[in-house]
Each structure stands twice: as C-alpha cells, then as structure tokens.
Design brief:
CATH architecture of the largest domain: Sandwich
Largest sheet: 7 strands, antiparallel
Number of domains: 2
Distance between the termini: 4 Å
Protein name: Helix-turn-helix domain-containing protein
Pfam family, one: HTH_18
Organism: Thalassolituus pacificus
Number of strands: 7
Radius of gyration: 17 Å
Structural class: alpha+beta
Shape: globular
Keywords: DNA-binding, Transcription, Transcription regulation
GO molecular function, one term: DNA-binding transcription factor activity
Helix content: 40-55%
Number of helices: 9
CATH topology of the largest domain: Jelly Rolls
C-alpha cells in the first residue's frame, strides 16, 4: 500500500530492513496491531518520530513508514512534538488498516485536519514553484533539466543568488538537496505506475538505474528492487 502526494509519502510493509541512511523528510514509523520496530539500538511498538537528517537504520514488522515534508503543517506540528530531539515516541493506537484511513488516523494522532499535509510557504513566487513541482504527483513530471537554479531564478525575476537565499530562508534547506528529494519522489511515483527502474531513472533525471539505485540506498536505506516491491505491494 502506497500514498504519494504533496507533503507526504507513506507505505505499509509487513517487513522492512533498511541500512543506515538519512533524508530531508521527517519520518514516522507507525506499527499496526501486531507491529514493532527496532531503530539503531532501540525497540518499540509505539509510533516513533525521527527528525530530518537523523542517520538511522531500521528494522520493522507490520508498520506504516510515513515521510512528511518538514514545512507542511503536519511536519511543523510533528517537529514541535520533537522539541529538538532526534527520536520521540508518541502515545497512540495501532495505525490504520488501509491507505484510505491513514490520513484521517494520522491527522487524529497529530491533532490536525487533512489539509495539514500541504506546505506552508509565504512567498508567492516559491508557492508557484512548488505547484509546478507538484505536477509530478499527477503524472506530469517536468524533466529535472528544466530545474537549474539560474533558469528558475530568471523565471521568478530574481538573480540566482537571491533565489538560492530566498529558497533556503523559506524552505529551511538548500535548493539542490530539496530538488534531489523531489526527484526521488518522482522515481517512486514512476515505479508505482509500473515503470522499470531504468525508465524511472530517466523520468527523474538520473544517469541510469545504477545511479538511481545508489541514491535510493543512501536516502532510504533500500535498493530500488526493494522499493519496487513495496510500491507494488498494494
């Protein structure tokens, strides 16, 4: 089971074993009724929040793995729960049984509504840029070659240096790592649509499937083959 939309990437797995990795998203590991996890040296059955860029490995059984954009309302609210810590357990019931119930259950866990997964961006130019990036979720992925910082800056009537500064100020991370994160989401979307790893790599702007696989493992702790199995398990 897989959910991929602006602000959130989530999948359910009966078994996952991820090597050490780190990523830009805030992560929630949410066990089902019989689920449990082991992260680094810790074990548990309660929902677990993992801070962005926190290096970790993960073994989990019957869990939802939920990645939240830190700038979504849900991401900001979850970060407040963390209060600067890298790992925080949350009190909560077993997670939803299927993807149609997950967002409602997650919203209830965090005390939010379903709009909480949308990004909060105050600058209208960056909001338009984000809407363009979100076309990927509707099958209209724009090739990464069109996302050079200087070209985007020109389209926004900004200098390249001003654009990079504004983006980091608003998004709390540099443009290039954020773009890489969105390209990985694009690849996941392509895999879920049934495309091969080679075609997914091409769609998301990676040199080849080997390049995509290396980047995948670094950011998710999984191989592309494992990601394909998870993406198609629903």
């Amino acid at each position: 089971m897989l959910i991929i939309k602006p602000g959130i990437l989530a999948f359910y797995s009966p078994h996952i074993l991820a090597d050490k990795h780190q990523h830009a998203a805030l992560q929630l590991v949410w066990p089902g009724a019989q689920g449990h996890w082991q992260l680094n040296a810790e074990k548990g059955t309660a929902p677990l929040l993992i801070a962005p860029q926190a290096e970790h490995d993960l073994a989990a059984e019957h869990c939802w793995i939920i990645l939240l954009e830190p700038l979504s309302v849900a991401g900001k609210h979850a970060l407040q729960h963390m209060n600067g810590q890298l790992l925080v357990s949350l009190p909560g019931p077993a997670s939803a049984a299927d993807s149609t119930e997950l967002l409602a259950a997650l919203s209830h866990l965090l005390g939010l509504d379903k709009q909480a997964f949308n990004l909060q961006i105050s600058d209208s130019r960056l909001l338009r840029l984000q809407q363009q990036l979100d076309q990927c979720f509707n099958g209209g992925c724009i090739k990464p070659s069109q996302w050079r910082a200087r070209d985007i800056a020109a389209g926004l009537a900004l200098s390249e240096s001003r654009f990079l500064h504004l983006f980091r100020e608003q998004m709390h991370m540099p443009w290039r790592p954020y773009l890489l994160w969105r390209r990985l989401l694009c690849a996941v979307q392509a895999l879920h649509q049934g495309k091969s790893a080679t075609n997914a790599a091409q769609d998301a702007g990676f040199a080849d499937s080997a390049h995509l696989s290396r980047t995948f493992r670094r950011h998710f702790g999984l191989s592309v083959r494992e990601a394909v199995q998870l993406a198609r398990s629903d």
